[in-house]
Amino acid sequence: MTSIQEVVNAAHSIKMTSGQLAQMSGMASQALQQKGSEIASIVRGSSTGQEAVQAVSVAARSLANAAASMKSLESTCESCIANLTK
User: Fold this and answer.
1) Which of 83, 70, 67, 69 is nearest to 16 (CA)?
2) Which residue range is the domain that position 51 belongs to?
């Protein structure tokens, strides 16, 4: 049977990993947004170029959503740990 301390340790691990993933995903999203803007100014007038810019924009939004989800998981783990260690 799993002890409460083992659950707390696992939650700590998930919390740390989700926080790191949130930070990395957020940074990647910002970098993609910046590159997308740079590409947009270069390919202005090109339909395939604009499609590429759109794809980069979708990827950046997806990464931003992933970062938000990881932050939410980090917060949930923090609450879980607090409840388990009362």
Assistant:
1) 70
2) 4-80
